[in-house]
Amino acid sequence: MPDLIKRRDFLWMGWSALLAFLTGSAAAAARFMFPNVLYEPSQKFNAGPAKDFPPGVSTLWFKKQRVWIVRTAQGIYTLWARCTHLGCTPNWFLDQDRFGCPCHGSNFSRDGDVIAGPAPKGLWRCKVEVSATGDLIIDKAVLENRPGTRDKAPYFAEV
Ligand code: FES
Questions:
Q1: In sequence order, what E strands does 14-110 have?
Q2: Strands, DSSP E only, in 3-151?
Q3: What is the pLDDT of residues 14-39, one digit of tens each?
Q4: Strand intervals (E) in the chain
Q5: How far is the CA of 84 from the centre of ligand 1 (A)?
Q6: Of 89, 103, 114, best ligand 1 pocket probe by most atoms within 8 Å of the beta carbon
Q7: Is the pLDDT of residue 2 over 60?
Q8: Ligand 1, closest atom to CA 101?
Q9: Vertex 92 angle, CA 87 and 126, to 5°
Q10: What is the pTM of this model?
């Protein structure tokens, strides 16, 4: 009977298979040490000097940060431009003094309260602070929309 696989070759194949297995296991273990993480941009940003925002609704940061900055006689608050119905982006209609959502017709007052449509609650207000240099620091990760609470710090800056 012919010797199809020599003993030395057989051992070589065995050691190669073991080495491949160990290398694969080590690679899998190394990959496990680096989990899949989404690195999203910070929700906090500097909107510039508070004094630069005149009375009314500012759309300066609408496209870039999806917020409106509203100055009243008492101070400044920030509304997150995300409809509380299904998350569409409403628009500001200056001539009608309201925010209108194009998706299902929800309307919000300048304060962010629901005035029409299926939205279950008012627009969220973001945390807003005035830095030592007078800049508005807005944090979209800290939100509030309950009347009373939303009208005080840190959701309202008296400037
Ligand atoms: Fe705005 Fe439906 S997502 S009304």
A1: 44-49, 56-58, 67-71, 76-80, 91-93, 98-100, 107-108
A2: 44-49, 56-58, 67-71, 76-80, 91-93, 98-100, 107-108, 114-116, 125-130, 135-144
A3: 999 999 999 999 999 999 998 888 88
A4: 44-49, 56-58, 67-71, 76-80, 91-93, 98-100, 107-108, 114-116, 125-130, 135-144
A5: 7
A6: 103
A7: no
A8: 1
A9: 55
A10: 0.77
Q: Which atom of ligand 1 is nearest to the CA of 104?
A: 4
Structure tokens at 5: 């696989």
| Predicted confidence (pLDDT) at residue 7 exceeds the cutoff of 90 | no
Q: Which amino acid is at 117?
A: G
For residue 154, what are its two tokens? 């840190």
The pLDDT, as a whole number, for residue 89 is 97
